[in-house]
Amino acid sequence: MKPFVLLATRAEDQPADEEYALFLRYAGLSEDQLVRVRLEAGPMPDLDLDELSGIFVGGGPFNASDPPQDKSAVQRRVEAEFARLLKEVVARDFPFLGACYGVGTVGAHLGAAIDRTYSEAISVVPVTLTEAGRADPLLEAMPATFSAFVGHKEAISTLPSPAVLLASSPLCPVQMFRVGTNVYATQFHPELDLAGITTRIHAYAGHGYFGVDELDLTLAAVHRAAVSAPSRILKTFVERYAR
């Protein structure tokens, strides 16, 4: 099997390593089948799409909607690298699944309106599939409404016409979309379990996702409902595109 690639941007080792482990577990891949590239540590290597089965993108600290002058040199480099990669990915309709930061990267490539109108606090929310989502082969194993972990400062407020809306939540109208047949992005985290999001809550305390006195409230919020269905998306993605 040709490998998949995980493009990651987390600078903190513990959540970065745990993110990779979660993708491995829920996608059903071994380490030689999922190559991790930590983009915060160095430039994106040249990716020969003919030698890959597909691309995953994990979450991260970057906000596409931040003013250019507020973006670090690393963020500007990563955004430029994603712009070049997505030009080829979208043109070839190459298998791609971006989780959370995937919405920012693919959305920016499409010229979507990305702002803080529909941000969501770290929590569990109900995500509901649209009619197109219920018909999409990547989501065939998913219930019509399922619980998912979220936590994001920005979101897409207007989805461009080339994209197909697949899922929404009560406070965030664009939770998942597709471009072409094989390029997907989710605002929720299909890779996360309760232990994983707990790690991130502690790792990113003080990063503006919640108030300095809201740690206990945030930890309680991710216990609101059991979350199990979203990880099926990773497994289905691998089963559909492994070659």
TrEMBL record:
Task: Answer whether the UniProt record assigns the keyword Iron to this protein.
Answer: no
Matching PANTHER family, A to Z? GLUTAMINE AMIDOTRANSFERASE YLR126C-RELATED
Domain (Glutamine amidotransferase) spans 49-193
Q: What is this protein called?
A: Glutamine amidotransferase
Q: Which PROSITE patterns match?
A: GATASE_TYPE_1
Q: Which InterPro entries match?
A: ChyE-like (IPR044992), Class_I_gatase-like (IPR029062), GATASE (IPR017926)
Record the organism: Microbacterium terregens
Q: Which UniProt keywords apply?
A: Glutamine amidotransferase
The record ties this protein, via Gene3D superfamilies, to:
3.40.50.880
Which Pfam families does the record associate with it?
GATase
